[in-house]
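Handout for the seminar on molecular recognition.
Each group receives one record of this type.
Step one: identify the two inputs.
Step two: read the structure output and locate the region that could contact PBG.
Step three: write two sentences on what you found, then compare them with the reference statements printed after the record.
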Amino acid sequence: MSTYPFTRLRRTRASDWSRRLVSESVVMRNDLIWTIIITDAKEKRTSIPSMPGVDRVNLDEVVSEAKKARDLGIPAIALFPNINPKYKSDCASEALNPNGLIPKAVSAIKAAVPDLGIIVDVALDPYTTHGHDGLIEDNKILNDASVEILAQSAVILGKAGADIVAPSDMMDGRVASIRESLERAQLSDVMIMSYAAKYASSFYGPYRDAIGTSSSLVGDKRTYQMDPANSDEALREVEQDIIEGADMIMIKPGMPYLDIIKRIKDEFRMPTYAFQVSGEYSMLKAVSQNKWLDEKKIVMESLTSFKRAGCDGILTYFAPQVADWLNH
Ligand code: PBG
C-alpha cells in the first residue's frame, strides 16, 4: 500500500489541465431544465419581488423564452401557471379547461419550437381557492377524488402537446392513474416525471408568491408532502412511483436533500432529477446581489453538487444564465 510521502493527492490538483482530467462531475447544458412561470397578464413580464431576476411571463413572452431556451441549447422547459383568481374554485375546475393558460402555452410553444421538450406540472394548487394540491372535505385533503382530477388534467396537458407530465401533488396512486388515463387516451408517448420524494418544505415560499397562492394557502401541506426528517420513506415513495409507471423521478427541494438524491440514485438507477426550488434560487440570488458571494461560482458549485450526488438533470430558475455561462 502506498502512502505519504509516495502518495500525494495534491499532485493531480496542481494544474488546471490535470484537474480537468480527473474531474468526476461536469455540469452541461444538457442537464438543465428551465422552470418558467406563466400568467394571462397583458404585460409581457411582471416581476416577483421575492425572486429577483425571475419574471412571470405572458403567453407571447413564453414563446420567446422557449426560443431562447432552444438557442441556448437547453433541452427542456418546465411550466407553472399563475392562475387569475377569477378562475379559481374549491374544486379546481380550471385545471380541466382544455383552453386554459397552460394548454394554450403548450400548443403555442410546440408550434413555434417543436424540438424543445415541454414539461408541465400536474397539480391542483394553482387552481384551488385554498391553494392545496387536492380537494378538501371536512378539513381533509381527499386522496382518490384528487387523483381522478389529476389524471384527467394530465390527459388534457398531453393532448395539448406536453412531452412530460410531472405530478407534484404527492397523492397516493396518482402515477398509476395518470399512466392508465394516458394510455386510454392513446397518449402512450407522454412521459411521467414524478415528484417522487417531495418534502413539506419551507423553501417553496417565493414560488407561492410567484403563482399567487401564498396569501390564500390555508394551513400547510404536511398531510401529503414528506417530513424533512425522513429518508427511508423517500425510498418507499420512489419505489411506488416506479412500479406505477414513472419514467423519471424527482427529488425536491434540492440542495438540503443531497443525501436523499444519492440514496435514491444508488438504489434505483433511474433517470433522477432535482428541483432547485424557488427558495434556493432566492437565497443564492440574495447573497449574490449583496456581493457577499460570487453568483457564478456558487451557482455552478450548487449544480455540480447535484451532479455529484447522482442527478441526471436539474430543474432550475438559473438555467438560461447557466447555459449562457457554459456557452462562453
Ligand atoms: C405545487 C408545487 C410547488 C412547487 C412546484 N409545484 C409548491 C408547493 O408544493 O407548494 C415549488 C416550486 C418552487 O418552489 O420553485 N404543486
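Reference statements: The radius of gyration is 20 Å. Residues 28-327 form a domain with the TIM Barrel fold (CATH 3.20.20.70).
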